[in-house]
Protein 1
Amino acid sequence: MISRNRIKALTAAVLLLATTFGSRPLLAQATLLQNAPGRKVLSLNGSWNYIIDPYENGFYDYRREAFDQSKTGKGGYYDNQKPSSRQETELIEYDFDKSAALQVPGDWNSQDPKLLYYEGTIWYKKSFTLTPKAGKRYFLYFGAINYESHIYLNGKKLGKHQGGFTPIQYDITSQLSPSGDNFVVVKADNTRRPDAVPTINTDWWNYGGITRDVFIAETPTTFITDYKVQLAKNEPGTLTGYVQLSGEGKAGQSVTLSIAEAGLRHTLKTDAEGRATFRLPARKLKVWSPQSPKLYAVSVSSGADVVQDRIGFRTIETRGQDILLNGKSVYLRGISMHDENPLIPGRARGEGDLRMLLTWAKELGCNYVRLAHYPHNETMLKLADEMGLLVWTEVPVYWTIAWENPATYQNAEAQLSDLISVGKNRASVAVWSVGNETPPGEARLRFMTSLVRKARALDDTRLLAAALELHRDGFKVTVDDPLGAELDLTSFNEYMGWYVGGKPSEITQYTFNIKYNKPVIISEFGGDALAGYHADADTRWSEEYQEALYQNQLKMLSTIRGLRGMTPWILADFRATRRQHPVYQNGFNRKGLISSTGVKKKAFYVLQTYYRQMAQQYDGK
Ligand code: GCU
């Protein structure tokens, strides 16, 4: 007898196949170009016309049949139809070019008051001139579209993608118009769904739209599609990795890896699959660290293709309850952050926003940041490399995911693979996290253990983590989440003094019983404070309450054997629809150490003082 769950799972798998391939084969998403922004690109950032489409009229006919699955494939907004020159005026009930515009990159919620809470479909359209050259290939690349996207070029479907925070890429070489006049149309839909990743319930704003850069990358016909250049796991004197070519001439090609400053230049030969792997002595490399974030100019070339990157080299490992960076014990003085600049509402748009967030973290005394709860902008990782901050980066396997649904797992695994693909050459990336505060259970353990194993198969040089669950019995806190056995770190969120455990002055009575002999990283603690609201330390929402909470949290946590770091929640107040108290919240989660207007609260200085002491203790500075 097949169980109900089994039938559900099989149905989902069949559905997944149907929706992915449908009746019209979609161009598969090409392997993500490594360091895509570093290639020769034509930017499509700027004004895109848009049409709001809550009933998806631009996608389905009135019988709810998808236009792009019909015999002609036509009829949707993606045709970008215009009246023909004939006398009679055809019935066309849309016109992109006469519609309003949204700025790309940028979520739609923060660009128009009527879109602040909008959840549904918005169509975007951008015309561009690009005359394809012989011997070249062209890739249309979106840094991220939240959440589901259908993408069309010159009226033809390129593909469909799910996942709001990882790059989307299509080889458009054969789809470009010979005339040079092209237009791209995107159906972006941020509807929350129970089987999505994340699912319908989160504590952040569901910013929809094309939230990161869009460009077209040009490469030679045979080109460098991917590469990894890092120190071998726990071997500081060995440089290892691979270069992957694509295109008809990929096999048996020479590839040159050069790090001129280190006097390293090595020529490799690709195999029949276009791949060349290497293990090279690299004694002369100066290691990267937060105190000395040394980056090298690395050049990878083959035939007509040359890719330049700036890469740092370091090792990170655990030994018992210690974390060793380049063989030396390190304490992770961290802070959590969302991909949001509180001063300019909405998703962080570009380098200025990101550099500001990381500068605040440096001011706090951090050597480490937790980029919660989803893959952040690739630029954030490059800035962390440059500014000397280690990074915990994460997929949005958050809270109550549909653990039994195969399509949900495939989606989570695809997002994890893309996260690792984008971050694998970044010295700052020290931790891959497979999720946050997920409720223990058999299906959840299977799902997340599979993600851990996938991550290790893709990259064995980083630490694996997740924000685990704990349970309390009186003042005894126990951490024995079975997922912890699969991970390199014991990380968990605890909210003593805010959600549980009484007032700040009462929390130092808690003791922690942790099952694993691994380094302990507190992935979250904190409490809300409305900046400028002052009262005594027992008055919730005041800065003094948050200040006392941090003081007592640090006292309580310092009793934990094996404590090797923390990322308190959170650097700055952030928008969250769950937070509707009309006086203290107004749609913001106020656990920030910095307010939504950039004011540092009293608790900021408590943590800053503690981090100065820890830096003195570990780094002697
Ligand atoms: C949770 C969760 C965060 C959330 C925070 C809070 O631990 O991980 O995403 O914002 O608590 O409740 O403020």
Note: The chain has seven helices and 35 strands.
Protein 2
Amino acid sequence: MKIIIADNYEEMSIKAANIVAEQIKLKPSSSLGLATGGTPVGMYQSLIKMYENGEISFKDITTYNLDEYIGLPENHEQSYRYFMDNNLFNHIDIDKSKTNVPNGNINEGQADAEAKRYDKLISNAEIDLQVLGIGGNGHIGFNEPCDIFNKNVFAVKLTENTIKANSRFFNDISEVPKMAITMGIKSIMMAKKIILLASGKEKSEIIKATIQGNITPKVPASVLQLHRNVTFVLDKEAASLL
Ligand code: PGA
């Protein structure tokens, strides 16, 4: 397990972007696993700058996102498809047909079928580098704390903690979807390389539990202790309890 500690959010974002850029330079046809949330936005901005400067190209890259809300159309401002288009894909030379996000424009009854479809896609994907954020409750993707590690892509009921955390992006908490489709722990652990980004004091306790605590599905990210090539890219505040 490698731990990189940056002075602040900006530096964390640049360090993470450098790791992704190295992967792209090393293998221009890489498959990247991507994450949404507030944390990776700065990293995506750095990658866009590198693309604009001619340092990297995404033209042969394929991407697979971790998760998507169920019940939001693609053009909903809070859908993860919209987030990815807006924060990255619309600003680089990627072939949009090679960008994969679970389809969230479905009702809850269609969720298992969509999870199955996405799982097949992920199983054949061989992800070279997976980018992760972490929830305050230790979730990666939408693998919420529970009694067993979920394996494959599945439809998940979001915990109140997550619904509350994500309500900051919606007009009202009642608008936050209650379910999502997410890569499972096995899908994530299959990636050849993983980087997890975390910033801010509010992530310090869960970062300590993830890196130095027991491996338990109650702290889903703790399973990363078992991965052979994982790098935590933290700012000082997130790393302050290590
Ligand atoms: P955040 O979300 O980056 O907005 O803190 C992280 C997550 O829930 O995975």
Note: The chain has a mean pLDDT of 96.
